[in-house]
Amino acid sequence: KRRLYLAMAEYTEEEFHNAQRRYWRQVAATDGFDVENVVIPPSMSGMITGLMPYDCRGFARYPYRDLVKNYASLGLHRYNLLKGTRFQFGDLQKLNMLQNAVSSFYMTLRAYEPGAPDSREQDTFQVRVDEKRYNHLDITCSVARLKDEVTTKKPYSYLTFMVVQLPMVSSKVTCLIGHLTMI
């Protein structure tokens, strides 16, 4: 059997793959959003690359601040389109993201509905946005829901966006093309 020697520990390939599968099963059980209690065995820390969690409340530091807030707003817009609501972005609570050049972003945010009787009260939402290509705005928003809603047990729709240039108009004009797909 081939053995892996990482972090001064010895593992068979099977042990390594089993640990990786256990990690991703725990992540899948939360749909990627609540991974604070997902455990990587200490001896395998650094070997299993998974979701990187960030607490975004207050003055917390997290990568791609403006991009992440725009992705969260996009998900909220998707929710509003599908549900006929008018929620507006409040603040970002937490972010989990893959550590790749093309990443997936799992965001938990708060939003409020202006004009509602309790418009000061904010609801908690979960949004998932997946990038499809490096260095291009080609993304899919597959999850946009209230935190307590479960969408993985039933068919769902996803919203895909891509930025394209229209050479027949002008080389400086770009368009954002959106496509809503129902599954």
Automatic annotation (TrEMBL):
Q: Which residues cross the membrane?
A: none
In terms of domain of life, where is this protein from?
Eukaryota
Q: Which InterPro entries match?
A: MS5
Give the family, as the similarity comment puts it.
Belongs to the UPF0725 (EMB2204) family.
Name of this chain's protein: UPF0725 protein
